[in-house]
Amino acid sequence: MLPTVVARGATNGEQAAYDGVVEAVRQTVIAAQVPGAIVQLDVKAGDRVKAGQVLLRIDARAADQAAVASEAQVQAARASLDVAKADLARQQQLFQKNYISPAALERAQAQFKATEAQVNAQLAQAGAARTQTGFHVVRAPYAGVVSEVPVTLGDMAMPGRSLVTIYDPTALRVTAAVPQTALNGLPTGSAPAAKAELPGLPAAAQWPATVRTQVLPTVDASTHTSQVRLDLSGDLVGVTPGMFARVWIASKSAAAAARISVPASAIVRRSELTSLYVLSSSNQPLLRQVRLGRSEGDKVEVLSGLSDGERVVTEPQLAARIR
Q1: Alpha carbon separation from 94 to 49, 78, 110, 144 (Å, rounded)
Q2: pLDDT of 276-290, one tens digit each?
Q3: CA-to-CA distance for 24 and 175, rounded, in angstroms?
Q4: Mean pLDDT, residues 256-270
Q5: Are 45 and 274 in contact (CB under 8 A)?
Q6: Higher local confidence (pLDDT), 23 or 1
Q7: pLDDT tens across 19-36, in order?
Q8: Contact indicator for 274, 289 with CB cutoff of 8 Å
Q9: HSE (CB half, 13 Å, CA atoms) of 61?
């Protein structure tokens, strides 16, 4: 006796599907801040990086020499400050003994303050030079995945030119354009009951958990649609920005047609043929081609090729042995 189930149609809660795309909530295009040749490139597209990890290095020899020159100028200014400090001390001693006039003491004090200000200026300039050398080392701003590296070793980096693009795989969302009419009647600031589907993934991973639904407060003037965003939960394996997705929204205007679902184990896939075994009136298994819809858990929707009330064999391997 072949194990079977009776195909029954059920409504889907009056839901409508809208095509969407997976987006990265946090995606960064890292550009150069200084010009120079790329002398080290440590990542490629698809690599996972940690926060602060070195992605590439730009030739910093000129910047290093400028930093050394600034440090030398700081040392020279400090030497001048030492001389001015000693001279001020001598002038103060002479003034106490009435060997010099108050004007001479004031000139020594002014010289000391001017030299001290020059030292502070040189210190600031040296700090700026050291900061400039840091721009030649490009690091990851956060842990993520490298999605694009449009440069190669030896390329010239210029300010504003894209070097590396990374995104955070733990912060993804599904975005879809939903007609204005499908969102009518919602209270201001509220979000519709919605869920995301990723048809390109295995059946068990096609319905990821969502943590937040957001409807943008603007409507596109040309298409009269609003963007609906569903934030996905966690780091999902196999999910990347740009993937095709669907957003299912409960809507009073959606058709409540009965949809037939069968166990996923009943589906037979041979090359480009998708089919299942149906028992005839004489209890003989007949292979029948069907067209499938979306999957949810261990169930798969049958769009055509199967009628309500027919018996479907749940173990097609046993049915194939019957002649």
Answers
A1: 66, 24, 17, 68
A2: 999 888 888 889 998
A3: 10
A4: 79
A5: no
A6: 23
A7: 999 999 999 999 998 899
A8: yes
A9: 4
